[in-house]
Amino acid sequence: MIYLNGKFMPIEEAYVPVLDRGFIFGDGVYEVIPVYSRKPFRLKEHLARLQHSLNGIRLNNPHTNEQWHTLIGQIIAGNAADDQYLYLHITRGVAKRDHAFPAGVSPTVFMMSNPLLVPPQELLLTGVPAITASDNRWGRCDIKAISLLPNVLLRQLAIDAGAMETILVRDGFLTEGAASNIFIVKNNVLLTPPKSHLMLPGITYDVVLELAQAHAIPHEVREIAEGELRTADEVLLTSSTREVMPIVSLDGKAIGDGKPGAMFKQLNQLYQQYKASTMRAGNSAVLSE
Fold it and tell me: Superkingdom of the source (predicted)?
């Protein structure tokens, strides 16, 4: 069961006109929200990021937060899995093909849910490989835009190499993964790049930093040179659907001893505890509140 422009329907019945600007130009934004035990995780933060993306492309939000809450609840109820991931997709709408913004056009609003498959336990025990590549994407990576071709090509490099992720480097500094945020550990300090226009502001990224702050884990948010990435004691990736995962090799070279490290184990345990307590409470409060 999906939602499209005010109507709920089976996905097989959903169609979008070929002149939709999302199809023609990639003119739109999206958001992905994990759902655990039929409760959306950190919904307030996800809706704030959606608003940031809409602001970035100068598109009015078609719904209030209260309306989004209602629609999201209906989508969750209309699908079978207890754990789901919600996909929200908003384009500028249907108009003749012209680069300029069309006037008086209603946005296309699409929402669907799929079963959420978190990383299997064996991957958390063994860790995963990654590769590196030059970050050749556009200069507004903080906007969660539907025009993801650069990310698709970069992620495919990892698939072709038998790796889980492509870690991106721009002008000699770590930015993020093709579909994730990246942390490293050096001398028992957790390090990650600061939010900027060159990376997506990850919700799980925020949770990990809040956990580090709440549990007195030494951490710094600063630029990370490529050399620091390559000589890190641990490397972690975070995302809404993959949560926290250990990367144990980079471009075929082992990271540390080639096994998930102590910092990953601590943060993953804390993340799972926080996720469980948040879902029991039925809210998405941040740890610092």
Answer: Bacteria
CA dihedral 88, 89, 92, 93 (to 10 degrees): -110
Torsion region of 35: left, alpha or beta (phi above 0 gives left; psi -120 to 50 gives alpha): beta
Query: Which one is catalytic: 44, 96, 144, 259?
Result: 144
Q: How many CA atoms lie within 13 A of 43 on its CB side?
A: 22
The rounded distance, in Å, linking the Cα atoms of 8 and 12 is 12
- The domain 2-115 having CATH identifier 3.40.140.20: the answer here is no
pLDDT at 279: 80
Q: CA angle 251-255-258, nearest 5°?
A: 110
Specify the CATH number of the domain 121-281: 3.20.10.10
- For residue 143, which of 28, 231, 44 has the smallest C-alpha distance? 28
Ramachandran bin of 267, using left for φ above 0, alpha for ψ from -120 to 50, beta for the remaining angles: alpha
pLDDT digits (tens, 9 = 90+) for 169-223: 999 999 999 999 999 999 999 999 999 999 999 999 999 999 999 999 999 999 9
Phi and psi based region of residue 24 (left: phi greater than 0; alpha: psi -120 to 50; beta: remaining): alpha
Nearest residue to 19 (alpha-carbon basis) of 108, 112, 110:
108
